[in-house]
Design goal:
By secondary structure, the chain is mostly beta strands. It has one domain (about 10-185). Helices cover about 5% and strands about 30% of the residues. The protein contains 1 helix and 9 strands. It has one helix at about 35-40; strands at about 10-20, 45-50, 75, 100, 120-130, 135-145, 150-155, 165-170, 175-185. The strands form 3 sheets. It has a 5-stranded antiparallel beta sheet with strand order 1-2-5-6-9, with no helix packed on it. A two-stranded antiparallel ribbon has the order 3-4. β5 (about 120-130) and β6 form a beta hairpin.
């Protein structure tokens, strides 16, 4: 047995909100005029930083034990599974260390290697514009994965797939920017 497939041994999320020091009653550009009050002042910057270890993956064989959909099948591990010397950069485990179990057997390696961890940063800037005493318009500019740090994941974990052990997709996604306008009443 081993850890569950959704296990992340370490997962750190750090978030912060900071009001920029511009506008009336702030440190910079603090004159109480229309431009400072309505355009320059009142902006906030917020961010979320995530550091997480990778999740374990189950190396799977072809189902040759039974025809039900109730059981999960695992490959058998015959060596450490560490990438061989001189391996391609995107190979994170050695697929030759995992073999198809004998006919009628379920396999015994529930948890194989762990996928690479996640490092991602999301940032946003927002400002609320007062329309009346009870109504406001909020503008937001958001950037997800702002530094575009690659967080690779594995595609196939089948012992019979030629791409097993290779990092074949980006698990968090590339940088995404979005603008939002919200009316609150």
């Amino acid at each position: 047995m081993g850890p569950a497939g959704f296990d992340r041994t370490h997962n750190v999320l750090i978030s912060a909100v900071y009001g920029l020091p511009f506008g009336p009653s702030k440190k910079f550009l603090n004159a109480n005029n229309l431009i400072n009050r309505e355009i320059i002042g009142g902006w906030q910057v917020s961010g979320v930083q995530q550091f997480a270890t990778g999740q374990p993956i189950a190396i799977t064989p072809n189902n040759n034990a039974d025809t039900s959909s109730v059981n999960t099948f695992y490959a058998n591990r015959i060596c450490t599974g560490n990438p061989p010397a001189g391996h391609p950069k995107l190979q994170f485990f050695d697929p030759s260390c995992y073999v198809q179990p004998a006919t009628g057997q379920y396999g015994r390696t529930r948890s194989g290697p762990r996928q690479p961890g996640i490092i991602t940063t999301n940032l946003s800037m927002q400002k609320a514009f007062a329309i009346t005493e009870k109504q406001q318009l909020q503008f937001r500019a958001e950037a997800f994965s702002v530094f575009n740090h690659p967080n690779f994941g594995t595609g196939s974990t089948s012992v019979t797939n030629p791409s097993a052990g290779l990092l074949t997709f980006e698990s968090v996604g590339q940088r995404t920017l979005q603008l939002a306008l919200r009316y609150a009443f």
